[in-house]
Write a structure and sequence with these properties.
This protein has 259 residues and is mainly alpha-helical. Helices cover 60% and strands 5% of the residues. The protein has 15 helices and three strands. Strands 2-1-3 form a three-stranded mixed beta sheet. A hairpin with a 2-residue loop joins strand 1 and strand 2. It is elongated.
């Protein structure tokens, strides 16, 4: 039932329990003569770290269902803090085993402490089907929700290649969407795959370049994408720039060529 996979400093929590009695009662569910942890996993691990053989716990009623336990696990996190994107996805995927997106949305206020539309729940469930790096990138802020929706229209190979590029750069949501659109449109014009185009443009090499500051890499990336998507416009701009230089204008006079 675990939905939170953020690393926890078990030793620090164990020390807090020993010194300040900072302990939240774990919730368990009896299953097949054993107990599954519904919430409070870190507390249990910390108590075991303290060599305590017994851990006080709250056991859910015998007639509790897997849906009851799943909702309880989500609520334990959602009502203490806002769920991260990956946690929300794991929660939705598990709830969808028992409920329709419409029913989840109808009860979202009591499950997530937030109201969600059924369309949004559908989208979250769909995005969870992307390769695992997508969820990690969303948690890091390197992949926006809107961009993730765009990736649903790509093949698994394309989405994997694009996610690899997103892992090297920290772009705004609008630039992320531009990256996807420019690469797909350029690849279609050149009659080549998106993965092959990424290699041709050297985007991975740029992403791995440690000599450039992150901001400079982002600027360089967008320049490469713009030039590849609009080659005629780029060539025209370069000719105009050269013509301006040949004018030998006074240094105080500056003429900027528009994009």
């Amino acid at each position: 039932y675990l939905i939170c996979q953020d690393p926890c400093d078990i030793e620090a929590l164990a020390l807090a329990i020993r010194t300040t009695s900072a302990f939240y009662t774990p919730v368990l569910k009896a299953e097949n003569s054993k107990y599954s942890i519904v919430s409070g996993r870190n507390q249990v691990l910390a108590m075991l770290h303290n060599k305590q053989s017994k851990v006080g716990s709250l056991v859910m009623p015998d007639d509790s269902t897997a849906l009851d336990a799943t909702m309880r696990a989500v609520q334990a996190v959602a009502f203490s803090r806002e769920l991260s994107q990956s946690e929300l996805m794991r929660a939705v995927v598990r709830l969808c085993r028992f409920m329709s997106p419409h029913d989840i949305a109808a009860q979202s206020k009591t499950i997530f402490a937030n109201h969600y539309q059924s369309r949004y729940i559908d989208q979250v469930a769909a995005i969870s089907g992307l390769p695992e790096p997508a969820v990690q990138l969303m948690d890091r802020g390197a992949l926006s929700f809107k961009t993730a929706l765009r990736l649903l229209a790509t093949t698994s190979a394309e989405s994997a290649a694009l996610l690899e590029i997103f892992s090297y750069f920290r772009l705004s949501s609008s630039n992320q969407i531009k990256l996807v659109e420019y690469l797909k449109e350029t690849a279609a014009r050149e009659h080549m795959g998106t993965e092959a185009l990424i290699d041709k443009l050297g985007l991975e090499s740029l992403g791995k370049d440690t000599t450039l500051a992150p901001r400079d890499k982002n600027v360089k990336l967008m320049e490469i994408l713009h030039q590849a998507r609009f080659p005629v416009l780029t060539e025209t701009r370069n000719r105009v720039k050269q013509a301006i230089l040949r004018l030998n204008l006074d240094p105080k006079i500056r003429i900027t060529v528009s994009e």
